[in-house]
Amino acid sequence: MIKTFWSSNVNKIIVAKKSDTQAIVGYAAFLTQEPSKEYVQKQRKLQRKHNVKVPQGSYLMRIGVRSQRQGIGKKLMQYLLSNYPTHLTLDVSTDNAKAMAFYERLGLVIK
Question: Which residues, 6+ apart, have CB-to-CB distance to 21 below 8 Å?
Answer without folding.
Answer: none
